[in-house]
Fold each of these.
Amino acid sequence: MSGFTISRRKMLAGSAMLLASTAMPTLGRAQTPKKGGRLVLAADSEPRNLNPAIVASNGVFFISSKIVETLAEASFDGKDGLAPRLALGWEGAADGLSVTFKLRDGVKWHDGKPFTSADVAFSALQIWKPLQNLGRTVFKDLAAVDTPDDLTAVFKFAKPTPFQLIRNALPALSSVVPKHIYEVGKIEDNPANNAPIGTGPFKFGEYKAGQYYRLTKNTDYWGKDEPWLDEIIYQVLPDRTSAANALEAGEIQLAAFSAVPLADLGRISKVPGLRVISKGYEGLTYQLVVEINHRRKELADVKVRQAIAHAIDKDFVVKTVFLGYAATATGPVPKNDPQFYTADVPTYPFDVAKANALLDEAGYKKGPDGKRFTLKLLPAPYFNETKQFGDYLRQALAAIGIDAELVNNDSAAHIKAVYTDHAFDLAVGPPVFRGDPAISTTILVQSGIADGVPFSNQGGYKNDALDALIAKASETLDTTARTDLYKEFQKEVAADLPLINVAEWSFISVASDKLGNIANNPRWAVSNWADTYLAG
Amino acid sequence: MSPLRRFLRAPEAVAGAILLSALMAMALSASLLFPSDPQAIAGPALLPPFQDWSLPLGTDRLGRDVLAELFHGARTSLAVGLAAAAASLAIGAVVGTLAGFAGGLVDEVLMRITDAFQTVPGFLLALAFVSVVGPSLGAVVIAIALGTWTGPARIARAEVLSIRERDYVASARAIGMHPLEIAFREVLPNALPPVLAMSSVIVAAAILTEAALSFLGLGDPNRVTWGGMIAEGRTVLRTAPFLSIVPGMALVLTVLGVYLAGEGIVETTAVRRGLS
């Protein structure tokens, strides 16, 4: 199984690994680890709320995962792909109604108070379930958390909840915050949201808007001899070209989350002292998706959707938009997922003639000007790649006689236009796959979701068979049966195309050769960095 | 000496005229030379210039023909520049004439509105307007005109103030012409030349503002614009600098051309007026 997992991982890394291969030998070479030192790295956004228990997003984790820890972290070789953090063990009951966590002993909060099961119970019931963007779905049936002793927390569910889902949710959704800080006043307004207090290897130092975040070493950390670094400075560098320059000048030692533009990686990989790394993001896969508004008469026809899928040259997108740092997609689960992915789904090879034939069949003949109909296309503005894919998609649609008019919006306006006002025909979106389809993937195609929920099915798509499948999977406890249902789900989505999955990509880090123990877990950029060091 | 010959003897003016006619030729011939969609993918991505003679200026990040984009971009730049200047001159002339000719409270109100617009930086106004209305060619034209009409308005008013005391205006009044008719048929045409002299500056500024808006992603995404091309090229500045340099040069030469030609025309007409 583990060998299989690795081959999958390599598939995603694809040509990225090839490119990085010149730098690979240095990864294995023994460096002399050294205690202390200050790591300066590039940060491209400045989240205001730094509480990962409320805002479970990569932008927040990037900084706060070093301060606030989760029950478990993703791992390349641990059992179920997990490594213990605040929890040492977890066990689900056969009836799916409870999960028991054994907690780590001798852990202290940054203010010196001991960490106990009461903190876990408080975080789960008061924050993850009611307030957290992702926890609202996963923990919706959590009824109580029993704390028989200080080191045991038993999650009780009102309805059977698959243990596999809870396990898969642990790395991103289980940030534990201190009860004694949050129990007074309104949780959303707590000052600790901006200056977090946790159990992690680093303490929150200070934040200067537009300049930097400073984290300092937690000398009381539970990990033996950890952390290695004395200080982490997140230098705010919103301009993407400046990160590359700062790396070359030696002002920063790390640019994660593709802060260096993909087009610059070829050049920067040749700079001595720097290496390009595509590992360490396997658990953070973004999907390039064409969202479809099924309220449009033409798009409600599956033949038209299939024609659009055939018109997109996925290989071209991977090669040109992502410069090879991505993989083509077959369906709603990314190829690099070790548990759920199946390749056994209907596929849509690039075929303009077939696309044209499908559109003719659907009854949308070309007019005298060569156009069949006009669509509004809204590319999400969050990534350069989503915008560029929008430009590409417009041309790809022109080739099959569909005239797409691009509408550019800023982030807020885009979210409102697509997810609240439904003022789009096609949109380009980058949803994230979070290790389990039930966390943030099924919501993309499920019906009956309230207006205004971002990154959910707002295209008016309704498929009773698919809804039933999703509902059944959400209450199936047996891991194999549940996995099979999600394979069925992938087939159904790929066949009916409520949305079109084009590519899957993750991020690239550029790091100084001196930085050691990096990219050593599938969510490295958003993990706690307790063992990361700067060689002398 | 005829104005044309005087114009031709000023080297800057001739240089400006050549640049400007080159731009016009580019804009007019764009659909003849590059009849297909300039945003269509024409070849391999990031092809450097002068490698493949079917794509002389190379291709951008998606493999679009940079030369075709440059020609079609000239259209957008020129269209926006001229339309914005026309709109701004029209608004300015009307407001200035009304204020100057009517005087009193109307003058006060119109001039204070002009002041209000003048105190807000024009680019900021354009930015705010496009953000609210949404990026489209029409919105960009209006946005630019909003920030530039105040100059023409003030000049028109000053001219009208002196013209309205002339004898022919008094006689027009005496024969019972309607005040609005006097303002727009008798006064405005005579107040116009100094206002028109501003047009070259306004066209040049409008082209730059349009490029800046496109650079910030507030241009019409369905059209090729030079500002948009520079913004696109910026992400690959280190690896493919030509993608930003080529449209940047085009922009510089255009603004220079418009300005020099405009100055040349103003100089020649000013001399003629001075002599007469």
Amino acid sequence: MAEFLSLHDAVARYVQDGATVAMEGFTHLIPFAAGHEVIRQQKRDLTLIRMTPDIIYDQMIGAGCAKKVIFSWGGNPGVGSLHRLRDAVEKGWPHKVEILEHSHAAMACAFEAGAAGLPLAVFRGYIGSELPSVNDQIKFIECPFTGERLAAVPSVRPDVSIIHAQRADRQGNVLVEGIVGVQKEAVLAAKHSIVTVEEIVDDLNAHPNACVIPSWAISAIAIAEKGALPSYTHGYYGRSNRFYKEWDAIARDRDTFTQWLDDNVFNATDNVGGQA
Amino acid sequence: MSLEYTSSEMMSVTAARALENGMTCFVGIGLPSEAANLARLTHAPDVVLIYESGTLQTKPAILPLSIGDGELCESALTTVAVPEMFRYWLQGGKIGVGFLGTAQIDRFANLNTTLIGDYKAPKVRLPGGGGAPEIATNAGEVFITLKHSKRAFVKDVDFITTLGFGRDGKGRDNVPNIGKGPTRVITDLCVMKPDPETKELVVVSLHPGVSREDVIEATGWEVRFAEQLESTPEPSANELEILRELKARTERVHAGA
């Protein structure tokens, strides 16, 4: 059964220095409050997995939490570059960060394979792409039945996955609605999982085919109201497109970024990262 | 009487016209999204638009800033998980056309969204592949739209993120279960299509007021022109009005959020 913990205690217990961490949410339900808690607790040497690093990983990379980033699209959606990611990769600030890049199809399949308990994902991908020449985790295998050449990547098996969701009931069952991304796969693929939610309710009111993650498949649940801002929570609040645009100027400069981090993460106790 | 319009509007309208009513289109963010929604709001009301965030058959009233904006989900027929999107819908062969943008494209329509320069020491680091590598090979065909410039249209891309026809034009030969690849490239100057034999991109249509020299000047290889070079039809007043309304609506909403 999932244990109800404060966000502080959940992160302290399950996110260890050196861990492999997936914080998912495909441009929706991005667990910013949890990301800020990881920054506040100054976790180090994390291998961060996310299809779209987004500004959540930009913040964590700039704050010095990351050793390696595994991703498939590393931009600020609709805006431009992730300047902290680039500064770390290109200039080693605040320290050198290694990257391993995939395509979306590869990562989605790798999460699914992780949830399915398989060592690898097989799919029809990377044909003619030069990504396999710079990522030694991309291999090709021959279908034993048809002889077709197919791509293979290792499954994603994080030490801990962290997602944000609309709500949990009092038993700790979680409902995820809207763009569900790879969140369920991320939770099921991981050894441990933390789910932050907007609220705890008596009844999830979920229809029979809704995306519900049972309590016994989750390690910890923490309440984090507006925990996805500046990303959004379908049915609760919208995406702060304005903050995503403002982030470009904040992240471009090391001093501005450091000041922002002090003001909005280190000297804050809850998520105010997306002042909308 | 001819209408007043910009070269960007000409590009969007021409790209929109490439989509036929009833097509099933996997839409990239940015220019492809603008063109695909313009098509849906004009001549192709039944075009099926699919975004990689899992939103199937979506009808956004405003253009999304990110690939996973709430608007896409709220106006979709249904929303599926991302692994299902790539495995069942794209890899499963349910997508007629993939509509992509890019940072760099070469004469064999290979796309680079990874970096400019050397991989280990990039001059400019770009966001990476995203959905494109598999959209380009698993969709029935691919349309590409981007602005024409010497920086973008290069002889050979620095890095093939996404396959057009490979370094020699033969990248799709004898590959099983692969789509036709890029069938047209729509820019703010012209429309290009791959030569049926060599697969090198050839200019087939010039936009009104654009000369051959303009295209030659903005292309990083010795670009060829089709023997029967056509003139791209101008946008209609209706298309321009709907495009401008769509962009104004989008700007209003994004500025307010």
